[in-house]
Amino acid sequence: MTRAMFDDLAEFYAWFAEQHDREAYRTEQIPVEDAAAWRAETGTGNIVHDSGKFFSIQGLHVETDHRDTPAWRQPIIVQDEIGILGLLVKVVDRTVYCLMQAKMEPGNINVVQLSPTVQATRSNYTRVHGGATVPYLDHFVAPRSGRTVFDALQSEQGSWFYQKRNRNIIIEIDGEVPLRDSFCWLSVDLVIELLKVPNLVNMDSRTVLSGLPYALPGPISLRSRFAGPAVHRFQHILSWLCEAKTRYRLYQELIPLAEVPHWHWSDGRLVHGEGRFFSVMAVDVTAASREVTAWSQPMLAPIDRGLVGFLGRSIDGVFHVLAHARTEAGTRDIVEIGPSVACNPANYARGSHSRRPVFLDVLLGDGDVLVDVVHSEEGGRFYHAENRYLVVDVGEDFDLDVPDDYCWLTIEQLSRFVRFGNLVNVYARCLISCMVGLSEPAPRDRSKSFGAR
Prior knowledge:
Elements: E1 5-6, H1 9-21, E2 25-30, E3 38-40, E4 47-49, E5 56-64, E6 71-78, E7 83-92, E8 95-104, E9 112-115, E10 118-120, H2 122-125, E11 147-155, E12 165-172, E13 183-187, H3 188-194, H4 203-209, H5 234-247, E14 250-255, E15 263-266, E16 269-272, E17 278-287, E18 294-302, E19 306-315, E20 318-326, E21 336-338, E22 341-343, H6 360-363, E23 368-376, E24 386-393, E25 406-410, H7 411-418, H8 426-435
Parallel strand pairs: 1-13, 7-12, 19-24
Antiparallel strand pairs: 2-17, 3-4, 5-6, 5-14, 7-8, 7-10, 8-9, 8-13, 11-12, 15-16, 17-18, 19-20, 19-22, 20-21, 20-25, 23-24
Helix pairs in contact: 4-8
């Protein structure tokens, strides 16, 4: 196919199948000690790259009064540099189109997913690896042409990254750009439909798209059921967040990986003694379409699929979601606005002493389901990491009185916080993208159970 601007699902799927089949990809699990150019540092045991760039895996000591476990140590990814997640958009005949890429990542459960126009760490786009340049990068670094629609530093998964941030940026252009292999223009309406498909729109796309709903007038908006007067003023919510940041304590100290207890090496992986949480493993990769066509790297592999979800209900005719001021091991500023529930249920089903997350059973209960889709997490760092994303309307009988760490927001208010950066966590941002274009709730499918693929 030569056409690469799509409004139609069938045409897109035909193009996407071509991209997937046009070259061979290979990802092989290997022992961490066999990952070329990576090594365990003498003395600390930290896993580092020979260049000193990219990222490392170190130990983290955490103390907080905002989790059931007051102190723990764990492995964590340390990546000090700020990468770029950039999306080019343009308006053609009153329709907004996004320039997206069918991109291979070694951790993707289905190999190729839709990424934003640019998805690159600083080490990648400064070509530490000695490979090719990143396509379209010049549109996202100064000086650049085009209109900045959205630009914010955003956090990533605080359970697995230490204070990691990426620059999320959307640029609107008026003219044409040369269309590279594996790239296409997708209408926003089509992207909204593709967000309902499991493991298709990658995490980097979802976080950038969360900045779009209120940035462009007209074509992109939330349906009227999800906009309107809020139960809390914006200033009240900001004060609620500031209160949480001053109420709680989060102490973080990077330590040698060798000093993390309860973790041990087994068959080339670093694993938890109880088989919980995640493991540190490695892959060897071949991919002709990438800036570097072959490489090895360590990755984090979660033990099971996670669960991320908002409880929602109408308040005076306007839909609100229940947000949680949440602390993670690697959170930069004590708490961020997160979903009502974010956990890996398998961690609570194996004799864990941790208390079952608040509202988990409500989320999996009898409400009306608005969103229910499985999406992959960052395939460049996490191996086959998936979360089930849920938004459930629990009905107007659900109590408005909630614990102090929770607050009712409209989706419009939540989107507004996204534009300031570093306030809304990555899971809540992904849910915002999944909620764009919602209409009326669909009845819950009773045949679905957690973990069903």
